[in-house]
Design goal:
- The complex is a heterodimer of chains A (about 230) and B (about 300).
- Chain A is an alpha/beta fold and about 230 residues long.
- Helix content of chain A is about 30%, strand content about 25%.
- Chain A is built from 6 helices and 10 strands.
- Chain A has helices at about 40-50, 95-105, 110-120, 125, 140-150, 170-185, and strands at about 1-10, 15-25, 30-35, 55-60, 65, 80, 155-160, 190-195, 205-210, 215-220.
- In chain A, α3 crosses α5 (about 140-150).
- Chain B has helices at about 1-35, 40-60, 65-85, 95-120, 125-130, 145-165, 170-180, 180-185, 190-215, 225-240, 245-265, 270-280; strands spanning about 135, 140-145.
- In chain B, α10 (about 225-240) packs parallel to α12 (about 270-280).
- Chain B is mainly alpha-helical and about 300 residues long.
- The chains are: A alpha/beta (about 230), B mainly alpha (about 300).
Chain lengths: ~230, ~300
Amino acid sequence: MLSLARVEVAIQGARILRGVELVVPEGGRVALVGRNGAGKTTTLRAIMGLVPLSGGTIRFDGRDLARVSPHRRTALGIGYAPEDRRLFPSFTVEENVRLPAEVLGLPRGEVRARLERVWELLPELLELRDRRAGALSGGQGKMAALARALVTGTRLLLLDEPFQGLAPALARRYGEILARLVARERAMALLVSESNPELLRPFVDRVATIERGEITNETTAPASTG
Amino acid sequence: MGLLLLLATLDGLAYAAQLFMVAVGLTLVFGVLKILNVAHGSLFAIGAYLASTLVGLAGAPELSLLALALAAMATGAVMGPLIERGLLARIYEKEHVLQLLVTFALFMILEDVQKLVWGVQPLFEDAPVRLLGQVEVGGIFYTAYQLLLLPGVAAVALVALTWFLRRTLLGRTIVAVTHDREAATAIGIDVRRVHLVTFTIGAGLAALGGALAAPTTSLVPGIGVQMIVLSFAVVATAGLGQIEGAAVTALLIGLARSLAVYFAPELEVVIPYLLMVAVLLVRPAGLFGRTVLQRV
């Protein structure tokens, strides 16, 4: 479904990704682990087209993403939740979550169905739907960012360090949500980056280690908790 | 004294209305494109000159208001996409200093284009002002055009723009890009299109300010300079990217300048900038701006 071949990214002359090779099959759950600065975030941003490639190719369903404008990638069924949430602070939670579906030009019924899918998975957000995103706590913001990514991420979900900065109770709750998500939507692929691989073990089937912009190791993780 | 105060207030209101329309376009463009567009003053001037030409061509006074609207729309629709696609789209990723220099160069070029097209002799077409006649306010006869039409159009522009940005999908995508260009792209917003639409709206607002100003003043080379400098003062005093704030600040600066004209003429030129400096000393982000903490 998603394949990265010899992907190179250079930012201001510095090589951040050095020939990254990675495959995420349909329904696959892959953890991308590595230290800070190893290239996890850049890998996800490259898939979304937010940084230009200086080499290599990224394919999604066999299609070269270089030919798909960054803003059109959500239309392929890809959702992305950045590490630092990046919600629009003057919009309410619901406006943040609804906007990607509206931008896609989906029929009203489909927009409603996608929002219901999200509220069902994240019921705690229902109470916060009218609150401005700028007034959310860090943990609530992470949930809202996940919800926003889920609206377009029907086929592939990219989560960048979802547990970063979460208090232990919230991290547990976030883990439960992810576990429920992967159990319920078996065809959906997941690529999630994290510096602490232990947090991801319950819901990934493969762990790829990235060091200094290269995938150095890939292992099969224990079966998902399904 | 009372009559002078009333006159100063009416003048201030009319001037604030023009100032708001130019400043709100400038602040909208800055909020979304993150470019301080010096050539915004040229769009004001071209809107004014074109309006004057069209009013002259229209002949019948009844058509003069239509001519003003047409001039604003034509300037925005032609100059907006031309400048945004042809020039600004190439410099979004460049440094702010370079962006400022490029728009300043464009401003200088457009100043000369105005001289080439309209010459250097003053141009004056007041048919729209004569068409609407005068109204009496507290013993003063004042033109209905300046007393009612200018503030009315400014108020409609403010309400319409606020409604558009809050209630329409295109408006919300513009606000989203204002907040975070990259996050907007990541959720599927075509930022290129948002830039184009926003700049065209901003250009249209500047041209509308110019078109509405045309019947109230003689058009001479350099009219865009004073307006752009004052608009910068409004935008900086309000806080960059603040639309409702620009309305309040335009009113404040318009009234202050007008009061200075009547009661302290020697301060007329400096009063807007004194106000700006005073505000920025106390609130560096402007009256309505918010300081943003940035992780370094």
